[in-house]
Amino acid sequence: MAAPAVRVSIRHEDFDLGAEVTALRAGDGGVGAVATFVGTVRDRSDGRAVASMELEHYPGMTEAAIEAMIDQAFARFDIRAVRVVHRIGELQAREQIVLVAVASAHRGQAFQACEFLMDYLKTSAPFWKKEATDAGARWVDARVADDAALARWGIASGNAAAPAPAPPHG
Amino acid sequence: MKVEVRYFASLREALGGAETVEVGEGASVGALRDALSARGGRHAEVLGRQKAVRSARNRVLCAESVLLGEGDEVGFFPPVTGG
């Protein structure tokens, strides 16, 4: 296999899907499949026109969280390489936000690992979106459906759960 | 003991980015949250039990039952919405 490449990039700049896939496969003749997911900014959300959004993260934690998710993907699936790019800062409607790319010998493992990583990222990587809509700016709410998607992989997430009473403490 | 508290997203807008807080030995993340909320004002508005708040200790997501140590970094933030 090729020398380990940088697996996670959190940055303002856009990414090029073709270049990322080429780099992911480079030097590994055992790759027979690459599955990719690209997330983009929709121009409407909850009935409002969205002009742009601001993406905030937790420097240091976000990178480490995604690295840990990729480690889990390697433990669960027979895959050969992973690349995750997530943009931060101000993004206009229709721009690319996130890339997850997975290389494997055969398609099944690449498809599954790609979906696993996106489900995990949605509920557990510290990013926050603030939309600029025609009715003003608003923070995007987490979705219970995203927790349910992660639960399919046997991982519980209470990310979108309602507020809970305080745990007992002295 | 002292811990460094960091806020993100809507909590950062309300409270600023970070503050150093004195807590009792062996305090939990949840106890820290309640102590901050007990200050009232904006702290109570965004950290009160009526709000969904997530936490991290030393940059790893954690339950509020997790205990704190001297110099720990604690992050408080809303549910995450990346991807």
Describe the structure.
The complex is a heterodimer of chains A (170) and B (83). Chain A has 170 residues and is of the alpha+beta class. Chain A has four helices and nine strands. In chain A, strands 3, 4, 6, 8 and 9 form a five-stranded antiparallel β-sheet that branches. Chain A has a four-stranded mixed β-sheet with strand order 1-5-7-2, sandwiched between helices. The model of chain B has no long low-confidence stretch (mean pLDDT 97). In chain B, 27% of the residues lie in helices and 28% in strands. Chain B has one domain: Ubiquitin-like (UB roll). Classes of the chains: A alpha+beta (170), B alpha+beta (83). At the A-B interface, strand 4, helix 2, helix 3 and strand 8 of A face helix 2 of B.
What would CATH call the homologous superfamily of chain B?
Beta-grasp domain
For the largest beta-sheet of chain B, the strand count, sense and barrel status come to: 5 strands, mixed
Structural class of chain A: alpha+beta
The strand count of chain B comes to 5
What share of the residues of chain A does DSSP label as strand, in percent? Answer: 25-35%
Q: What separation lies between the terminal Cα atoms of chain B?
A: 37 Å
CATH fold group of chain A: Aldehyde Oxidoreductase, domain 3
Order of helices and strands of chain A: EHEEEHEEEHEEH
What is the chain-wise order of helices and strands of chain B?
Answer: EHEHHEEE
Indicate the multimeric state.
Answer: heterodimer
> How many DSSP E strands of chain A?
9
Range of helix content of chain B: 25-40%
Q: What value does the average pLDDT of chain B take?
A: 97
